[in-house]
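Tokens for chain A. Residues wanted.
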């Protein structure tokens, strides 16, 4: 082809036309190639490396701690930063809602910008606003969009993950024992019942696990009692009491009140209340 283009009897105009045509053909062929189904040409060992990277745990090796107290402190120190970051994000959303709640409570309508912000937060917190008034949406969101005391989060994390040493924590970054119900969504429990279909959800990161836990407690109907108790504390200008809020988590575990007692013991014994800011 290069020799043909250099032929002395081929004019510069003809050469240019041919080059442009070849360029267009090459670009079209490449675009069609990009859009067509591709067959992976990665060697098997490369695929295995990619899959391993996706499943890598972000947890420190808490089993390496010989001293129990040192392990506990390392676990709390590691997770506290994630909890505080999540709570800060929730407080920012709540700060956006509070002036809108004041407007709605006075009987006025929200501006268009405020209403769009409201709908966005409602969607994030899994609230169907279609059949609700602005005031009803705001009332429900003021109950949902609030922090969870650090002490309560850490107590549940310690209980559910065996202080970061459970299989589900190590292999799936699942700190709070959350379930999922689609095949392949997580890890199959070794002791799962014969007719059970649930798996323990696998998360790409600890941050994703923490975010999912907060959203679960702040939206799931199973924890309505916890949210109502929290709202009552807010209405009375009282600090959020994790020992009381724990009573609203009886449905988090099949152990019911025994589970709640375990959480309360973890909070008391480890003096986690000192970490709470509300």
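Reply:
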């Amino acid at each position: 082809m290069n020799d043909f283009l250099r032929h002395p009897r081929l004019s510069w105009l003809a050469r240019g036309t041919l080059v442009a045509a070849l360029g267009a053909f090459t670009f079209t062929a490449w675009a069609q190639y990009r859009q067509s189904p591709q067959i992976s040409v990665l060697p098997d060992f490369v695929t295995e490396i990619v899959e391993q990277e996706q499943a890598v745990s972000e947890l420190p090796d808490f089993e390496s701690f010989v001293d129990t107290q040192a392990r506990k402190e390392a676990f709390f120190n590691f997770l506290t930063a994630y909890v505080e970051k999540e709570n800060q994000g929730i407080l920012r959303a709540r700060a956006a809602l509070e002036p809108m709640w004041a407007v709605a409570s006075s009987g006025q309508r929200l501006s268009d910008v405020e209403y769009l912000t409201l709908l966005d937060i409602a969607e994030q917190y899994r609230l169907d606003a279609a059949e609700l008034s602005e005031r009803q949406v705001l009332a429900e969101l003021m109950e949902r969009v609030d922090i969870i005391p650090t002490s309560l989060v850490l107590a549940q994390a310690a209980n559910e993950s065996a202080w970061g040493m459970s299989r589900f924590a190590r292999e799936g970054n699942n700190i709070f024992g959350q379930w999922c119900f689609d095949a392949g969504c997580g890890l199959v429990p070794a002791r799962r019942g014969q007719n059970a279909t649930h798996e323990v959800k696998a998360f790409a990161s600890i941050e994703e696990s923490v975010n999912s836990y907060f959203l679960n407690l702040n939206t799931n109907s199973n924890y309505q009692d916890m949210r109502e108790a929290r709202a009552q504390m807010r209405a009375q200008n009282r600090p959020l009491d994790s020992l009381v809020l724990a009573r609203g988590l009886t449905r988090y575990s099949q152990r019911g009140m025994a589970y709640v007692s375990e959480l309360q013991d973890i909070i008391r014994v480890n003096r986690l209340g000192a970490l709470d800011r509300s």
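DSSP finds twelve helices and three strands in the chain. The longest strand covers residues 199-201.
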